[in-house]
Amino acid sequence: MKADIIMAKNILFVDDEPNILRGLRRSLRSMRGEWEMEFAGSGEEALQKISSGEVDLLVTDMRMPGMDGLELLRRVTETRPDIIRMVLSGQARKEAIMGIFSAAHQFLSKPCQADVLKKKVSRIMNSRNLVSDGQLASRIAGADPLSVVNSNLSAFIDETGKEKPGPEVIQGLVGRDTAMAAYFLKSAGSGFFGDMSGENKINNIMDSLGPEIIRDLVVEYRVFSAFSENSREDQLAAGISEHSIRVSELAARIAREEGCGPEVVNDSETAGFLHDMGINIFLSYNDVVSDVQVLADEWSS
């Protein structure tokens, strides 16, 4: 029987405070058998370590002298898009918080319990190890900002630009675009906009974020891009969302008929809606759009 190959998990922690790095070394000591850990005291040192060694996951603070966390994340996104990028930080300027949503995949707020950090990192690394192809990993990890359906984004910008945007209109737009929904679910788990941990109901998330933050994210900080209007990619993205809506409705119906409680029904609905989210990533790459078209044809047949 052939033994499974376990890929190394190389993690780089970056923080300008020596006490924080010492605390991380101490609290994560039990993981030394599973992770290869490096520690850097600045963004410049982190880039040097990345250029001279293997790094699968970057965990960085935001507020650092010289090169701050946002600049480090952007540099890594450009030069090593295959590296998964996580923020572990306390208070930060609003501009920096908004900026990291297009540069990082996961967020944790300080102070963070060691068990929570271990759980998050382990989940990320287990997912990363499923992707052994370097080019594929780069495409998955580097796909930010997400591209959304053109008509949805236009309507969303129009609505959020109003003096009094309508919450139900915003929720409806997000609820029919998988990329938008995935983005705001990601925001809810960040901790930067309040405690929404475990929340995955879009209406609740949009209510918690509020129109001002939503407007800033979408209009000022341009967290979404859009496919060209009526392009092949735009039509495929719309098809993915329509298919996902049908699957989410069916998943929720099955859960209800099986006697599941409201939480499981909601989780099933959300999982159904996002189950094909990964396909959206590849619509930006011309060499695989034809493969997405094949999937779309199968859905409609």
Summary?
The chain is an alpha/beta fold and 301 residues long. The chain contains 14 helices and seven strands. The longest helix is centred in the last third of the chain and has 26 residues, at 232-257.
Q: Are there runs of 5+ residues with pLDDT below 50, and where? A: 1-6
The number of helical segments is 14
How confident is the prediction overall: mean pLDDT?
80
Q: Percent of residues in helical segments?
A: 55-70%
Taking the alpha carbons of the first and last residues, their distance comes to 40 Å
SSE ordering: EHEHEHEHEHHEHHHHEHHHH
Radius of gyration: 20 Å
Number of strands: 7
| Biggest sheet, spatial arrangement of strands | 2-1-3-4-5
Tell me about the largest β-sheet: 5 strands, parallel
Oligomer: single chain
Strand content: 5-15%
Q: What shape does the CA trace take? A: globular
Structural class: alpha/beta
Written description of the protein model:
- Helix content is 55%, strand content 9%.
- By secondary structure, it is of the alpha/beta class.
- The strands form 2 sheets. It has a 5-stranded parallel beta sheet with strand order 2-1-3-4-5, with helices on both faces. A two-stranded parallel sheet has the order 6-7.
- Helix 3 links the parallel strand 3 (57-60) and strand 4.
- The longest helix has 26 residues, at 232-257.
- The N and C termini lie far apart (40 Å).
